[in-house]
Amino acid sequence: MSSAVTVDSVILIGRNNIKQCWVVFISNENKQVPLWFQASGDPEQDGLVVWDYHVIMIQDLSDFKGEGTFQDSSSEALVWDLDSTLTFPTPFGQYAEKALKAGEEINAAFTKLYRVISGAVYLDSFASDRGHMRNSSGEWMSPPPSYPPIVAKDGCVNNIHRFWDMSDRADRADCNDNFGRVLSEKELLQKFGSALGP
User: Fold this and answer.
1) 39 lies in a domain?
2) pLDDT tens, 24-74?
3) Is 187 part of a structural domain of the chain?
4) What is the value of pTM for the model shown?
5) Domain of 137, in residue numbers
6) Which of 86, 114, 193, 197 is in Cβ range 3.0-4.6 Å of 103 for a Cys bridge?
7) Phi, psi dihedrals of residue 145, rounded to the nearest 5°
């Protein structure tokens, strides 16, 4: 399954508090990441879904010191996941424990990676023509949002593949580029202040 509408929706949710917001693409090289407590999931398995990618927004409630700055947080952040059945928004620690099952051992093929982009950079750089929401016959797999497709500030009309691609972790040293940083689960937990994890 893929998280189609969420990609656009995180932009709409975060506009008013953009300096506190981080957009997070969850995927891996196999395009198979399990998340729990998902509305699209199997209710008999705690709402388990295996996504090819999923997008959430994290609102960092700590003292923010500059747009796009990567720093450790001391206050609990909030997760905005439009497919989650947990509270909305969800405290980061609860989301990490229940939806991500952070710290639990899983098959290596399902190890999650997280591309984290500051909200302001995401607003300027993300683009999607929504082609990923169509099947091989060109039909919509689910109804598209009613608003126009998102175009990047530089005029790019489609770069979503670059955001869900987790294969190049070389960009980890530069958090200010248009595509953010790819973090391990441990690094994500450290970034947003959760005590969970290995």
Assistant:
1) yes
2) 999 999 999 999 999 999 999 999 999 999 999 998 877 554 444 444 444
3) yes
4) 0.81
5) 4-191
6) 197
7) -60, 155
